[in-house]
Amino acid sequence: MFLQRTFTAPQSFTDIHSQNKIAMAEKVVLHYFNGRGKMETIRWLLTVAEVDFDEVHLTTREQYEKLLSDGSLMFQQVPMVEIDGMRLVQTKAILNYIAEKYNLHGQNLKDRVLINMYSEGLIDLMEMIMILPFSSDVEAKLKNIQTKAKERYLPVFEKALSGPIYLVGGKLSCADVELLECTLMLEEKFPGILADFPNVKSFQGRMTQIPAISRFLQPGSKRKPQPDETYVKTVMEVFNVKLPLP
């Protein structure tokens, strides 16, 4: 089915690229670990908006303490993003700012609240996967994630995509980007999980045809791999905590 549908970049996607040439007075800088975590969705959204960014990777406790001492972290947490002369914290706030700035947050208030509902559900699911490397009893948690994905989350998106190409308002939004990211994360853990969700699988195929996303999925891009022992060890040392997390 999806092979019969060709992807045409929406006008909003073209607009995004044009806006960036005017708006990018300063390069965006991401402060986080050299891994996915809560920064990865931000990387995805900036990539789709075709916004270039630099990264400062936290590797030592001293770096984190410096951010604390100079007042860069409002709630003593990362991710932190330098953009438009601001230092933004709190993942959802950062994502909403990027989505609003680059026309990825719907056309009106009703669009935005629906996008936010989809987005928060997807973030809930992705965070379950995100904390696995720091958890005990991983097999039980994987089983719980798979069950919730198949019974609670994926049916919502399968229904929403039964006709429309995009989730909300017929145009690309941050919710679409997050759904793509989430489906790829799920398939890493549960190959074949989308077999019973053909609309979601077709959506995934269409989204990967977007040029910026296609490049992001290639080796050597700024997309991060699944977390490994080095990533986990660095996070533990920077935050001065021990495994497993409660």
UniProtKB/TrEMBL annotation:
The keyword Transferase applies. SUPFAM superfamilies: GST C-terminal domain-like, Thioredoxin-like. One of its GO terms (biological process) is glutathione metabolic process. Keywords: Transferase. Coiled coil: none annotated. The keyword RNA-binding does not apply. This is glutathione transferase. It comes from Seriola lalandi dorsalis. The lineage of its organism: Eukaryota, Metazoa, Chordata, Craniata, Vertebrata.
